[in-house]
Amino acid sequence: MNKKLIVYIIILISFISCSSNKTIKKNISISEINNYSITGLQEDKLRQANDLFYKGGFYSAIEIYNSLLESFMASDNQIAVINLILLIAETYIEAMNYEKALETLEIAKNRLNFIIVKTANKDKYTALYMNTLSKLMLYYDKPSFKEIKEGLLNHSLILAKMIKDSNILMKSYINLGQYYMNQKEFDLALENFEKALYLANYTGKKYSYAILCEIIGKIYVEKQDFKKAEKYFITAYNILSNNNYNFSLGRLLITIGDFLIKANNVDLAISFYNRGYEIISSNEETDKNIKDYYLKSIENKLNNLNIKVLNLRLK
């Protein structure tokens, strides 16, 4: 990476939070739970839970989701119940508690049998269930998953296309992209992630768009196309910083640090690692195990460079 490009990155990231994001067409929905009546109090709780989710406070979010689940079950709101159960399962995946995610998905599978509304709704939530199970299989190293993983991923994509749900289709492409990325089939991964990126933009999913930009940037780093990687990282930075997704911003800074190491710019990488450490450690809502995971990751990266961590953990 030449000096001009390094200066360009520093200047652009320094001023990027002042610029507006014109990529996304619509505001992100507060929840995947939609198309049914909820009270104002329930909506407030959903906002609180989603805010915690984006800050890495996954268990606090799950606690609120569970309290909402009781009220939805009391009112016999079947669609809300199945959707929320699936949301809880996905939150457990993000929290890296794969056993609980699997248990919750088993509850969701059984609950699907209680849906007696029109077939279109049952098909939609069956597709969402398959999609969430597919995502779990990508991260949970369970022997019984290995033989069925790719088949389930493709079946989930077919279901998503059949019901013509853009959000579920986006999730299916993300799962397939992650599968191929894990296999180091970067061209196939990129093809699926770009389709997901288009749908994230089309449906106004700011957070998903930013995370996808980060992932695509990682692929271009693997392909040694640093200029394209930089472009996607900066777009992700723009969205995450402008929308106060600070936990994910901290994770992104770690990714950019890794990128700069590969681009042979160690000094700048150290700055990004330390800034990521500062953001994650100061995020009080983030679950302790999640926070410790990423802080330890940064410490290991800096130790490998024989650099002492410049920021102290909050006690």
Relevant terms:
315 residues
Radius of gyration: 20 Å
- Beta-strand share of residues: under 5%
Low-confidence stretches: 4-8, 10-35, 311-315
- Kindly state the percentage of residues in helix: over 70%
The counted number of beta strands is 0
By secondary-structure content and strand pairing, the structural class works out as: mainly alpha
Note the main sheet.
none
DSSP summary: helix tally: 14
How does the overall form come out from the CA principal axes?
A: globular
Instruction: Please report the distance between the alpha carbons of the first and last residues.
Output: 38 Å
Mean pLDDT: 84
Explain what the structure shows.
With 315 residues, the chain is mostly helical. The chain has a domain at 217-315. Helices cover 74% and strands 0% of the residues. It contains 14 helices and no strands.
How are the elements arranged and paired?
Elements: H1 3-15, H2 40-54, H3 58-74, H4 78-94, H5 98-112, H6 119-139, H7 149-163, H8 166-182, H9 186-203, H10 206-222, H11 226-242, H12 246-262, H13 266-281, H14 288-304
Helix pairs in contact: 2-3, 3-4, 4-5, 4-6, 5-6, 6-7, 6-8, 7-8, 8-9, 9-10, 10-11, 10-12, 11-12, 12-13, 13-14
